[in-house]
């Protein structure tokens, strides 16, 4: 056992377990997909319904400001300023809104990303080819990651934007985004970072990174509900753009119901479009508050240790490791593969070890701050048993 994987006997994060009902029913290792639900979601949704039931249309006086307030809670987690994060329904929509800002008929119309991006994001940018975009997808040689230099080498004066994945969903490879962002800016290109698999488990400071746009959602490491994605852009960056995908809440004064030319709202607000998904804001808040209180630095430290132990155990069993062994190069998950992995995954789930399986990758296992070291040993032991049976 290496020092990275030495168990911490007095883990203060274990105190949080009782906040998550699912943890008493199973060994929950699927936070890369859907984080455990905080018990406070019950009362959050109750307040949503109570407000609607008692206030009727006046509830909007609370609900509309919640779009910004929820973004502000997240801002504290990723180092953004108040008012720089807009809540949207999903990452696909956020990327489409960003893509709609560009005129691809100009010579600078190249879009660059890697073959390990989440497919939804790939589809959004592939669709821009119909609008004139030239899209270059850099292949991964090992299916795990793409060295930053390969991406940097592809950036030229005709590169418009790089919709990059921060942590690859199949392998948990943590991209060196800083050097890519710097290189992109040197050539006059923009970067939109999909940090869905990073926020809540990898510390991020958007100002320090200097990223132009950052998008993600709530249901994974942030332990929030579905329908609460987010888009970060500083006021300076946001106000350079006028999205074609739009709606009345993108207008500077939506309640003027003005039928003249669009006058975009200031800052990131101009990307809002139509009516927000209000219940999801309540469910997102519950998770954000907990993650902020626990602290992403502490989550990261524990995650490195537990994912390190999982990789070590998998290596002892001779499994293929589909995740970087360098802790600084991986996010919160571990993916392991072997010929009978899909069937073993089915059986693990039947036995109460909640993991998932992805083709071309293997079994994804994700401890989070609420995972005990005993659970890590138990899932390793179960895989060992299932493989020998
Ligand atoms: C990295 C990443 N991006 C995007 C998505 C999906 O985004 P959405 O469904 O919000 O469009 C996922 C979902 O698993 C993901 O892992």
Task: Please give the structural blueprint.
Layout: E1 27-28, H1 40-55, H2 60-78, E2 85-88, H3 91-99, E3 110-114, H4 119-127, E4 134-138, H5 148-154, E5 159-165, H6 177-186, E6 190-194, H7 206-209, E7 213-216, E8 229-233, H8 235-238, H9 278-294, H10 296-316, E9 320-321, E10 334-337, H11 341-350, E11 353-354, E12 356-358, E13 362-365, H12 373-388
Parallel strand pairs: 1-11, 3-4, 3-5, 5-6, 6-7
Antiparallel strand pairs: 2-8, 7-8, 9-10, 10-13, 12-13
Helix pairs in contact: 1-9, 2-9, 3-4, 5-6, 10-12
The protein binds pyridoxal-5'-phosphate.
Give a verbal description of the structure.
With 389 residues, the chain is an alpha/beta fold. It folds into 2 domains: 3-30 and 295-388, Aspartate Aminotransferase, domain 1; 43-292, Aspartate Aminotransferase, domain 2 (3-Layer(aba) Sandwich), CATH 3.40.640. The chain contains 12 helices and 13 strands. The chain has helices at 40-55, 60-78, 91-99, 119-127, 148-154, 177-186, 206-209, 235-238, 278-294, 296-316, 341-350, 373-388, and strands spanning 27-28, 85-88, 110-114, 134-138, 159-165, 190-194, 213-216, 229-233, 320-321, 334-337, 353-354, 356-358, 362-365. The strands form 3 sheets. A 7-stranded mixed sheet has the order 2-8-7-6-5-3-4, sandwiched between helices. Strands 9-10-13-12 form a 4-stranded antiparallel sheet, with helices on one face. Strands 1-11 form a two-stranded parallel ribbon. α4 links the parallel β3 and β4. The radius of gyration is 21 Å and the shape is globular. Residues 1-7 have low confidence and may be disordered. Pyridoxal-5'-phosphate (PLP) binds next to α3 and α4.
């Amino acid at each position: 056992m290496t020092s990275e994987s030495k168990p911490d006997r007095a883990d203060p994060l274990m105190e949080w377990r009782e906040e998550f009902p699912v943890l008493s029913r199973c060994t929950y290792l699927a936070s890369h997909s859907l984080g455990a639900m905080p018990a406070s979601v019950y009362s959050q949704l109750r307040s949503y319904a109570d407000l609607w039931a008692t206030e009727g249309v006046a509830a909007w006086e609370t609900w509309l400001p919640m779009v910004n307030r929820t973004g502000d809670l997240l801002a504290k987690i990723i180092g953004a300023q108040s008012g720089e994060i807009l809540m949207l329904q999903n990452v696909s929509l956020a990327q489409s809104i960003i893509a709609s800002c560009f005129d691809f008929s100009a010579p600078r119309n190249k879009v660059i990303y890697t073959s390990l991006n989440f497919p939804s994001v790939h589809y959004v940018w592939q669709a821009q080819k119909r609008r004139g975009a030239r899209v270059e997808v850099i292949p991964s040689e090992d299916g795990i990651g793409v060295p930053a230099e390969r991406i940097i080498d592809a950036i030229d004066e005709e590169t418009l934007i790089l919709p990059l994945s921060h942590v690859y969903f199949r392998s948990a490879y943590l991209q060196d985004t800083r050097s890519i962002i710097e290189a992109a800016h040197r050539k006059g290109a923009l970067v939109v970072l999909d940090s869905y698999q990073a926020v809540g488990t990898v510390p991020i400071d958007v100002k320090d990174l200097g990223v132009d746009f950052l998008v993600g959602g709530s249901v994974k490491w942030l332990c929030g509900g579905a329908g609460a994605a987010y888009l970060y852009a500083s006021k300076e960056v946001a106000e350079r753009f006028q999205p074609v995908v739009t709606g009345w809440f993108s207008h500077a004064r939506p309640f003027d119901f003005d039928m003249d030319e669009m006058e975009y709202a200031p800052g990131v607000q101009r990307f809002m479009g139509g009516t927000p998904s209000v219940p999801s804001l309540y469910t997102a808040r519950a998770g954000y508050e907990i993650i902020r209180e626990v602290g992403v630095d502490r989550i990261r430290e524990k995650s490195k240790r537990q994912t390190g132990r999982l990789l070590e155990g998998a290596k002892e069993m001779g499994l293929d490791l589909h995740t970087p062994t360098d802790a600084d190069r991986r996010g919160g998950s571990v993916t392991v593969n072997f010929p009978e992995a899909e069937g073993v995954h089915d059986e693990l789930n039947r036995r109460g070890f909640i993991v998932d399986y992805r083709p071309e990758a293997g079994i994804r296992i994700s401890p989070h701050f609420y995972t005990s070291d005993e659970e890590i040993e138990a899932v390793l032991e179960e895989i060992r048993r299932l493989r020998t049976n």
